[in-house]
Design goal:
With 184 residues, the chain is an all-alpha fold. Helices cover 85% and strands 0% of the residues. The longest helix is centred in the last third of the chain and has 40 residues. It starts with a helix and ends with a helix.
């Protein structure tokens, strides 16, 4: 489990860096600048160390640099409210890659139920698209409090709930299959 969080942390390093700096300083320009610099530094560091970066890391880098550049150029609050939907759509599109989720699963799950992990990956992609559409709908109201509630409680809560359901379902299926294999 620790390995999964380390991989996620590496893949989402620049996005996490943006969020932390923004929450501490409430300065979008500073947070964006630091996140872009952090993303570029992460790639350079990995290249120097000879480490391989996967597509999620590159996608996060592209999102942070691309959306960060637009943020720095426009400094528009409407774009700021819509920007998370763009990120959700992009991440959802990346999650449509068959088997993307396998690298985050323990070996026992990968060996026992890879088809369910693939299905869960597609379910995550669908969730990202639904959250993105909801984000646009909420951002179009112009209500900053509603938008903040949706971003933190609804979108965050949906992801936590999806993770919990996925964990329980995969655990039950793996346990069931292993018991059936032991009886056979």
């Amino acid at each position: 489990m620790k390995d999964v969080f380390a991989r996620l942390g590496s893949d989402l390093f620049s996005a996490i860096l943006f969020l932390v700096i923004y929450l501490v300083t409430d300065n979008v320009i500073l947070a964006t600048s630091v996140a872009v610099a952090g993303a570029i530094a992460q790639v350079i560091y990995a290249r120097i160390k000879g480490q391989q970066l996967n597509y999620m890391t590159y996608a996060s880098l592209a999102l942070v640099v691309g959306l960060g550049a637009i943020t720095l150029l426009t400094n528009d609050p409407r774009f700021m409210m819509a920007k998370p939907s763009i990120a959700h759509f992009a991440i959802g599109a990346i999650m449509l890659k068959r088997g993307w989720m396998l690298r985050y699963m323990p070996p026992i799950v990968v060996e026992t139920v890879p088809e369910y992990v693939t299905a869960a990956g597609y379910a995550w992609a669908a969730l990202m698209f639904v959250i993105g559409v909801g984000m646009i709908v909420v951002a179009s109201t112009g209500d900053l409090k509603l938008w903040a509630f949706y971003l933190t409680v609804v979108a965050g809560g949906a992801k936590i709930l999806a993770f919990a359901v996925q964990y329980v379902v995969l655990r039950l299926i793996v346990t069931s299959r292993r018991r059936a294999a032991a009886r056979a």
